[in-house]
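Progress note, sequence design subtask.
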């Protein structure tokens, strides 16, 4: 009976989600072209941009992975709050720059930007392939998260394997039809449910299991003090068999991720969907407030140590929902499950959409027969990318935080080519490309050989240092690129004041039109 009630609530909201995505397209003709599908026609206002970018930041990793890492290690998981807050501060400057650059040149993603900056269309294709490789683990993360949710709230009636497939099918169908605009609309529903359910759980779980926060925190300090300081439970260095997540790892990971998040393809999709650069600045100011919610699953993960001890490996992803299923009635379990599932669907939809856009715009467009059908090609790629991520979920499961870290460490290697190149004209193609090859090689070698962190330092930062060193050495030692375009055509800048001038020009044009009439 409990399974039927919880899954019925879940099913009703999933249908509502798809319907909301379709409703978002009302009045948009037949769905428009690639720009309408991938960046919402560059017309999303401050509210939609806020909920969309908050939705990308608050994923199933935040809902389940944060609880899982709180359960496994404790304090190291606070890096999530640190890097996201720092990333929003950096995004205050970077977001408007990328928005203006893309708008000025009619671009729809980072692969477009790289191709335009260096004047080589094929380079956009190379970046698209690399970005896809490093984004697939994040899609896998969302499939895993939503699958865990569905399996647990069904009280085991739906197996994990079937739950993974349902997660893939619902999200793929949703993103193919609705695009970025539909994701923004669904983000509103997701945020309402996430705030409500986490607010409820923050009070109900300590009261239900520990008779309040006082006894819970007293017991936590007394019995689990190791979880409350770096390097957390396990301690020591990674080489010595401990977690390796000490002060150096925390600082280096926060620094690397805060830089990387501003050029993450999904973040950039949010930037480019904005109606104005000022909307991005306001969002950068208010988005850190959303991070307060992240403390709740972390705290619940620590509570689970006393209620469901003994979870290991990927099982730790179940920590939060083990508490929920045990403490709440079936209808409430269903609602919490919906909030967690939408925390998978929204970011997964944007990740899949971005991969489709990169391939449709920068890879398949190089083939003449696909050049005029970029949106259709992108939608096919969405299905293929989702299928690959689903296959990885079945064959290479991992903890949610581990998948997140791998994605960020790989994407960080695009920083010189995407960000440095847009503010420093001297960086040459040879330098940027050589650095990218070295950075990707180093990060893959370290991660897949089990040497992450390296001496306590995030492997992605070590690889980025090698990347930058090679890029600068090759640039300064080699010839300049023979690019006749002026700086205004090649470089990005913060469009402060330009929007006011554009508004004044638009008003003047309307006034002249009124006088003619």
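Output:
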């Amino acid at each position: 009976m409990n399974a039927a009630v919880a899954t019925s609530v879940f099913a009703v909201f999933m249908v509502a989600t798809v319907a909301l995505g379709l409703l978002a397209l009302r009045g948009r003709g037949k769905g428009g072209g690639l720009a309408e599908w991938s960046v919402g026609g560059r017309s999303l206002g401050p509210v939609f941009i806020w909920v969309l970018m908050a939705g990308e930041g608050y994923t199933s990793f935040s809902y389940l992975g944060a609880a899982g890492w709180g359960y496994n290690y404790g304090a190291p998981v606070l890096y999530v709050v640190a890097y996201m807050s720092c990333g929003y501060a950096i995004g205050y400057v970077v977001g408007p720059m990328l928005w203006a650059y893309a708008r000025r040149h009619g671009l729809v993603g980072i692969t477009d930007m790289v191709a335009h900056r260096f004047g080589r269309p094929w380079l956009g294709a190379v970046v698209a392939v690399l970005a896809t490789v490093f984004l697939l683990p994040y899609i896998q993360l969302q499939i895993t998260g939503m699958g865990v949710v569905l399996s647990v709230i069904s009280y085991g009636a739906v197996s994990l394997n079937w739950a993974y497939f349902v997660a893939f099918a619902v999200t793929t169908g949703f993103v193919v039809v609705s695009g970025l605009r539909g994701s923004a609309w669904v983000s509103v529903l997701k945020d309402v449910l996430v705030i409500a359910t986490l607010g409820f759980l923050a009070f109900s779980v300590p009261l239900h299991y520990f008779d309040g926060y006082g006894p819970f925190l007293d017991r936590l300090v007394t019995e689990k003090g190791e979880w409350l300081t770096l390097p957390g439970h396990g301690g020591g260095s990674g080489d010595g068999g401990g977690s390796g997540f000490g002060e150096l790892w925390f600082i280096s990971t926060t620094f690397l991720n805060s830089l990387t998040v501003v050029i993450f393809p999904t973040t950039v999709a949010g930037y480019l969907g904005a109606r104005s650069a000022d909307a991005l600045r306001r969002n950068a100011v208010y988005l850190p407030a959303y991070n307060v919610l992240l403390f709740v699953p972390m705290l619940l993960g620590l509570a689970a140590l006393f209620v469901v001890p003994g979870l290991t490996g990927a099982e730790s992803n179940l920590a939060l929902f083990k508490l929920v299923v045990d403490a709440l009635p079936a209808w409430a379990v269903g609602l919490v499950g919906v909030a967690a599932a939408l925390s998978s669907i929204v970011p997964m939809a944007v990740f899949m959409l971005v991969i489709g856009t990169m391939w449709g715009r920068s890879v398949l467009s190089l083939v003449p027969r696909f050049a005029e059908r970029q949106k259709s090609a992108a939608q096919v790629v969405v299905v293929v990318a989702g299928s690959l991520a689903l296959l990885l979920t079945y064959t290479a499961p991992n903890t949610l935080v581990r998948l997140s870290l791998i994605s960020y460490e790989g994407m960080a290697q695009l920083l010189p080519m995407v960000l440095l190149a847009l503010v420093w004209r001297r960086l040459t193609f040879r330098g940027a490309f050589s650095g990218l090859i070295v950075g990707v090689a180093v990060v893959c070698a370290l991660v897949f050989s089990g040497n992450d962190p390296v001496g306590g330092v995030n492997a992605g930062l070590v690889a980025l240092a090698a990347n930058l060193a090679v890029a600068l050495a090759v640039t300064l030692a080699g010839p300049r690129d023979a690019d006749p375009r002026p700086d205004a055509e090649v470089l990005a800048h913060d469009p402060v004041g330009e929007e006011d001038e554009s508004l004044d020009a638009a008003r003047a044009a309307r006034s002249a039109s009124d006088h003619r009439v």
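The chain is about 75% helix and 0% strand. Work on this subtask will continue into the next period as scheduled.
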